[in-house]
Specification:
2 helices, three-stranded antiparallel β-sheet, 3 strands, alpha+beta
């Protein structure tokens, strides 16, 4: 897989397996950040780069979804997932 499978569509974060809640997106970003750091420290450069790319792509998608929801009038963007 060359591209990270995350996107923003109409206030939603979409992954290759379906929609992700914003809170779940943030947790997954944290996971990928930790994996990237640990992989880099262990010399697994390809894995580190993959995890870093996925974290960056998901961060952008979550940020876009957050902004879209705020523009649509949600004071709490996470509430849109409820």
């Amino acid at each position: 897989m060359n591209a990270a499978p995350f996107a923003h569509v109409g206030g939603a974060v979409i992954a290759d397996h379906g929609p992700l809640a914003l809170a779940a997106s943030r947790a997954l970003i944290g996971f990928y950040d930790v994996e990237a750091r640990l992989a880099a420290e262990g010399g697994a450069r390809r894995w580190a780069n993959l995890c870093a790319r996925r974290a960056l792509t998901l961060t952008a998608a979550a940020g876009d979804a957050d902004r879209w929801r705020r523009a649509a009038g949600w004071a709490d963007p996470d509430a849109a997932d409820g």
